[in-house]
């Protein structure tokens, strides 16, 4: 989740908007997955389960968008990133976040599982974080840590490779980790041929590079067309969840998610480049500018509120009218996360080095 940067004299407004939108989508997704993947039997509630899965599908573009934003910022040929900056600035921020947030989260899991606290659990929690076993949403930090660490090498390779080769590698990744696995999942093939699904993350990182190095200016209709196609993809994702026999779990590598992320990013990019974005002083722009610096913190702490309700108080969406429950937990979690992040950023260390 790279911070806002300037290009020339103007802010890249669309990156801020996409970052905030993706953060909201993450909170909504985890509001749903916290119940769907929790200790709740939904086998006799097929409609509820279908709606849950549809909501997860239509928010699945959130992580791809984060990665595309990072690729757009860090793989920009005009931005020089040394190994020293990659390790001691960008990676340091992620390591601190893992230590400050990941260790307490891992400790809470241990205490919750055993039902009591002992001091020996502290080094156990550290060990869990080192092995990548903290709260589930923290996986993204390990991913972005690796990408930041290899960014100077990627930039060097991208300077040497022809653009056609880069696009060829991306096409192979999209086919091998996206299209083929999706078809196999659709057909119920368990031991088919496919590349490791984690290969989709470098693909999205490179998508950001493709956009930032695109020299051809967007046509007037490009942004609107991408918005329409984005909406069509979401409708297809929703429709699939209500087809009898469709049981393909969401994956960030599957074709519809790839298309949704690319269409949404292109919508923002095209509007930015064609000068059709909102005025700088608009209320929406001011709200976005205030929320954008809080996004990383919101991502880090929003599960605290969900776990408090779902695991500690044993109160979930299912205890209320369905849509009231979803919206209620979403807004309470969002407001709590925004407030918590805002307070943490009042501490100079957190603002400068972590959030």
Number of helices in the DSSP assignment: 14
Structural class: mainly alpha
Overall outline:
globular
| Beta-strand residue fraction | under 5%
The count of DSSP E runs of length 2 or more, i.e. the number of strands, is 2
Mean pLDDT reading? 89
Radius of gyration: 21 Å
Uncertain spans, ≥5 residues at pLDDT below 50?
Answer: 4-10
How far is it from the N-terminal to the C-terminal residue, by CA? Answer: 10 Å
Approximately how much helix is present in the residues? 55-70%
Q: Write out the strand line-up for the largest beta sheet, numbering strands in chain order.
A: 1-2
Order of helices and strands: EEHHHHHHHHHHHHHH
Largest sheet data: 2 strands, antiparallel
Walk me through the structure.
The protein is mainly alpha-helical and 355 residues long. It is 70% helix and 1% strand.
How is this structure best summarized?
This protein has 355 residues and is mainly alpha-helical.
Which features would summarize this protein structure in a list?
single chain; 355 residues; mainly alpha; two-stranded antiparallel ribbon; 14 helices; 2 strands; 70% helix; 1% strand
């Amino acid at each position: 989740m790279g911070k806002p940067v300037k290009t020339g004299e103007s802010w890249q407004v669309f990156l801020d908007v996409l970052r905030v939108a993706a953060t909201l989508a993450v909170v909504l997704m985890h509001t749903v997955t916290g119940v769907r993947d929790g200790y709740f039997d939904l086998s006799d509630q097929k409609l509820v389960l279908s709606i849950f899965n549809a909501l997860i599908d239509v928010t699945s573009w959130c992580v791809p968008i984060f990665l595309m934003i990072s690729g757009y910022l860090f793989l920009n040929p005009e931005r020089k990133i040394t190994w020293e900056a990659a390790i001691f600035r960008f990676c340091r921020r992620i390591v601190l976040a893992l230590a400050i947030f990941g260790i307490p989260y891992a400790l809470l899991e241990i205490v919750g599982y055993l039902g009591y606290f002992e001091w020996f659990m502290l080094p156990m929690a550290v060990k869990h974080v080192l092995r990548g076993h903290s709260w589930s949403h923290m996986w993204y930090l390990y991913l972005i840590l690796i990408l930041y660490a290899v960014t100077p090498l990627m930039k060097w390779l991208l300077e040497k490779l022809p653009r056609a080769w880069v696009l060829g590698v991306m096409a192979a990744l999209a086919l091998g980790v996206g299209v083929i696995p999706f078809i196999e999942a659709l057909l119920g093939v368990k031991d088919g041929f496919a590349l490791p699904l984690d290969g989709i993350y470098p693909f999205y990182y490179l998508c950001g590079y493709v956009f930032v190095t695109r020299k051809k200016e967007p046509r007037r209709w490009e942004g609107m067309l991408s918005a329409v196609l984005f909406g069509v993809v979401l409708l297809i994702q929703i429709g699939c969840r209500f087809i009898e026999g469709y049981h393909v779990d969401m994956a960030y590598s599957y074709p519809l998610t790839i298309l949704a992320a690319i269409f949404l990013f292109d919508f923002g990019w095209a509007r930015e480049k064609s000068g059709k974005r909102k005025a700088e002083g608009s209320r929406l722009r001011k709200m976005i500018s205030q929320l954008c610096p809080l996004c990383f913190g919101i991502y880090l702490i929003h599960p605290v509120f969900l776990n408090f309700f779902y695991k500690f108080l044993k109160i979930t969406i299912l205890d209320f009218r369905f849509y009231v429950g979803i919206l209620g937990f979403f807004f309470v979690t969002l407001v709590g996360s925004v407030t918590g992040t805002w307070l943490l950023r009042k501490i100079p260390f957190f603002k400068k080095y972590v959030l």
